[in-house]
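Form P-L/3: holo structure prediction, ligand S-adenosylmethionine.
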Amino acid sequence: MLAAALGSGRPAHILVAGAGGGAKEVVTAAALEPGWRFTAVDPSPAMMDLAVARLAEHGLADRTEIVLGTVDDLPAGAPFDAATLIGVLHHLPGDAAKHDILRAIARRLKPGAPLILAGNRHAYASQPLMLAAWGERWHQQGASADAVAAKRGKILQGADPPQSEAAVAALLRSAGFGAPTRFFASLFWGAWLARREPSGVSAAAAPRPRRPAAGPRRRGRGPAPPRPADRRGSPPAGLPPPAAGCRAPRRRAVPRCWPCA
Ligand SMILES: C[S@@+](CC[C@H](N)C(=O)[O-])C[C@H]1O[C@@H](n2cnc3c(N)ncnc32)[C@H](O)[C@@H]1O
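OUTPUT (holo model):
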């Protein structure tokens, strides 16, 4: 789908968000399109270590920039020709976090650039027939009734999928993408291609306040970008200066001092 959207055989720079684990997206796409290079982003050191090992195994270290962090840690702008977000969205709790990662991706794509999004398209508990069918499949593959019940219990607690396909489309729209085209579906998964709106990320996709972050760690290319600025300087009128034991930038309901405000 990505080659069809970008034009096969052309050079392209692909943002791979949530690339940890096997870096499967990079390994697969790199073999099909020798002109593509990748920026692989994931905040989990353990998952990224696995990805780095796999990329080295496949001789892809030179074609892949590794960023240990989130998409928000990449410079803003629109340098990427395309992006993937595979198997990630349903692991982010709540709509706000889902919106934020999609919006962060949109802000780093060229106008009209495609995103491949893949992940759950239903809340598990909302689809009892499909859950039962999934159980049947495990059963047919040799799982006992107890093992099926245990697996089902685990997945019911382990993820927060969008409620519906319409919810996926709404998240994409609010983050600055056009209407998605679904090109794959299984019992619970879907895969979509959506393009960044040519006019850019709309006001509806305005940035939400950022959490204090540890900052990204990059391997291989240049120095790490600066950490989020501490709230230093002069206190605004009415707030006392930093108190002993101040733990800025943690926020408090009742400010103790300026950096804690
Ligand atoms: C189930 S794995 C999928 C990995 C890979 N995309 C695949 O399909 O094999 C989900 C990955 O998303 C990563 N992840 C979680 N939160 C993330 C975020 N905010 N930004 C980017 N990646 C994130 C996790 O660390 C994990 O490596």
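COMMENT: The domain at 2-123+161-219 is CATH 3.40.50.150 (Rossmann fold).
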